[in-house]
Amino acid sequence: MSDPYFQTLFAERIGGARYGKGSDIYKFEKIKRAKRQALAEHPERMLIDFGIGENDGMAPENVRRSMAEEIGKPENRGYADNGIPAFKEAAARFMQRHFGVTLDPVTEINHCIGSKPALAMVPACFINPGDVTLMTVPGYPVAGTHTRYYGGEVHRLPLLRENGFFPDLDGIPADAARRAKLLVLNYPNSPTGTVATREFYRRVVDFAHRHQVVVVQDAAHTILTFHEEPLSFLAVPGAKDVGIEIHSMSKGFDMIGWRIGWFCGHPLLVQALADVKDNSDSGQFIAIQKAAITALDDPTIPVRVREKYRRRLEKLVAMLRRCGFTCEMPGGSYFLYAPAPTGTADGHRFENAEAASQYLIHEHSIVTVPWDDAGPHLRFSVTYEAADERAEDALMAAAEERLRAIRPVF
Ligand SMILES: Cc1ncc(COP(=O)(O)O)c(C=O)c1O
Question: SS3 sequence, 314-375?
């Protein structure tokens, strides 16, 4: 079949005339295909899915009830543009209550349709061709993808175990630091589960002043902080002078599909991002913003979500350690990031984490997500579906039986 006339019209940023013709398969698509194959070839074997990166729970009942009420009100029907003041005020109350951060809801907060679109829009505010975005890897790639769309470059900052999964800011080459306009961070970090320290954030503020970069801290997992109180970048002196923080209600409130979050920080940064947003979308449905206010004003929700994932992670860590993995309880997120096995006692060899992950899915119906960007690691998510603690324990027991039988070597 011949190409449609528009085959040659695709922009270079998505592959130009070669768009749609490549044979590279995206990592998550490869996992999906392997899962389908494992299910088809071994219908008798329960799939143990540690691969899902989405909350398994529905939004809390009071939030759904609030939504049901708001959806019927005529005043909620229209374009929301850059959001209703009441949502910003609720976000301000939340920032104060959880992080001790005081923000002006009028100028220092704006809603977004989840944090992903906000991360996608940040480069539009700053990146000209040749500019650099500094980004930690492994990580959530969206801001980097859009940096490249605008002709910018991404300088990757590897998160290594020996550095406590913090970027080596002093080791950034002079040229990259000179051309950098954005430093994108994400703590609690996905996938390593590391939480930031005040000391690290202080060094970030100092770095931002020294190299004149804007800091974008992705706080999508912030409520899932286990060993201490959750920390906002904006709680560190001087942070508001150099950056913004992007918050999401997806993870901490079981509201993944609702698409609601906010960005906050320096008023001029908030204004710039809100301007780009205003030229990109027309705001989240007002009924969703109002239901989100119910969620933000209920401090019991984050506690419940956090405790559930803490419990599941503790069980997972104990189980994996019994099977020979080296891992400890992460500081935050619902992910465990563990060094991948290099093989099995009966002679399988894995050249990287991806090979280990594919083996586990195909041969043992255990799904994980491989990361090879900064040393071979597997990400185990505890967002699997299990109706109660009994079901969680049964799933852990099944995973343990299979992993012990494999006898992984490291
Ligand atoms: C680190 C990180 N940031 C941002 C997001 C986007 O979250 P949302 O768009 O649902 O707010 C995700 C989602 O997986 C994530 O893991």
Answer: HHHHHHHHHCCCCCCCCCECCEEEEECCCEECCCCECCCHHHHHHHHHHHHCEECEEECECE
**Ligand 1 and 115: CB distance under 6 A:** yes
Distance CA 66, CA 200 (A): 39
The protein residue whose alpha carbon is closest to atom 3 in ligand 1 is 220
Regarding the beta carbon of 110 and ligand 1, being less than 6 Å apart is answered no
- Does 85 sit behind a cis peptide bond, omega within 30 degrees of 0 on the bond before it? no
| pLDDT tens-digit profile, the chain (410 residues) | 799 999 999 999 999 999 999 888 788 888 999 999 999 999 999 999 999 899 999 999 999 999 999 999 999 999 999 999 999 999 999 999 999 999 999 999 999 999 999 999 999 999 999 999 999 999 999 999 999 999 999 999 999 999 999 999 999 999 999 999 999 999 999 999 999 999 999 999 999 999 999 999 999 999 999 999 999 999 999 999 999 999 999 999 999 999 999 999 999 999 999 999 999 999 999 999 999 999 999 999 999 999 999 999 999 999 999 999 999 999 999 999 999 999 999 999 999 999 999 999 999 999 999 999 999 999 999 999 999 999 999 999 999 999 999 999 99
Gap from CA of 116 to ligand 1 centroid (Å)? 6
Q: Is the CB of 383 under 6 A from ligand 1?
A: no
| Binding site membership of 332 for ligand 1 (Cβ less than 6 Å) | no
Helix (H/G/I), strand (E/B), else coil: 393 = helix
Q: Is the CB of 222 under 6 A from ligand 1?
A: no
- Say which residue the tokens 């130009």 belong to: 16
Distance 115 CA to ligand 1 centre (A): 6
Ligand 1: residue of 54, 218, 259, 288 to mutate (most ligand atoms within 8 A of CB) is: 218
User: Which numbered atom of ligand 1 lies nearest the CA of 186?
Assistant: 1
Task: Find the 213 Cα to ligand 1 centroid distance in Å.
Answer: 23
d(CA 141, CA 135): 8
The label of the residue with tokens 């409130």 reads 253
